Fold this protein.
Amino acid sequence: MAFVTGSNIGSDQEIKGWKFAVTSGLLGWVLDAFDFFVVVFLFDTLAARFHVSKADVVYTLTLTLAMRPVGALFFGALADRFGRKRPLMLCVLYFSLCTVLTGLAPTFWVFVLFRALYGIGMGGYWGVGASYAMESLPRRFRGVLSGMIQAGYPMGYLLASVAMQTIAPALGWRSVFFVGAPVALLIVALTLFAPESEAWKQHRPASMKHIFTSMLHHKAMFFYLLVMMSVLLCLSHGTQDLYPDFLKSVPGIAEKTVLGMKSLYGLPIVYNIGAIIGALFFGHLSQGMGRRKAIMLALVVSLLSIPAWAFGTSLGVLVIGSFTMQAGVQGAFGVIPAHLTELSPDAVRSLFPGVVYQLGVLLAAPATAVEFMLRDHYGYPWALTIFGGGVTVLMIVIFWFGPEAHNRSFLRETETKPASVLAE
């Protein structure tokens, strides 16, 4: 499959004030992840406070994730029609308000309502923030910024963990739902100083009808990217969600310490650091070697880490295996913001990647249940290996035959350039 464009890939125009746009996009995704993951650390607390089962609280995560495609559709369409800045500010204020109201919820059903409403904002931010940042910065930084955007997700997870060990004991569990509000105001301030996207100005669709017509016109690319994201998200969930539970099953590991903490808490911090490093490294690498090659290289790293990651019996081997696994998995993800925005049509560069990403989240939701079923039949090590290894190989095949628009310009060139094939 090839992606053909008439853009000159050599020019690099610097837009005044682009650093404000990029910083707001990055901070927003970190804040979004932080507001999501604080609930993960509060399952038992919330169940006791609202007199419900732990399973009921866990279900709210599923509800939040299920609402993400709605947000991607709504805020993405607004950003493609009315510009990146105002929808981005609206989205961050919206999901931050929902988070604050979550912390004030008097009953469990009010809590459920605001977590569902928060999911709309969470789903809306990625597409708008990624397109705004990618369109604003010089192309020579596109790869490393792609990694920084995706690294914001594990960074939000880490900050949520830190907040639970520092802020919550001092100010109470509700406080973690309030601490992000000042950051939301900072993001709004940065966006006010940032310029509107020049690429959006050039390709602005004439109406909402034009936006959805453009989506239908590029349906083949949409479905390819949806399959790609669904499988990649299966890999992400399949290597993360059950891993803490797997660690509990390894004899003698729970009693050991990592970074001065019990290993069951320290190991996730270690492999989230690996995730951040991998996203930055492979995102930067993709700027020179291309998006698909960088992603496939990251996936090979994941494959090679499986023996230590799934069959390790000592703490040292598990540290190396889990660190390397997440460096590879999130390294592949670190290229995705650039890859998706480059493959998206000009008129729907917020809506298109946002909906693809968030629908992929929804379609990948059963991954953990499938892997857990494999565990019942084959035990944890082989379940992790079969699922993680199989999905990784499938991802390599998908990217091997997939399209690429490496480093394409989002702006119309002043001179007419011949069309070129950017991937074969």
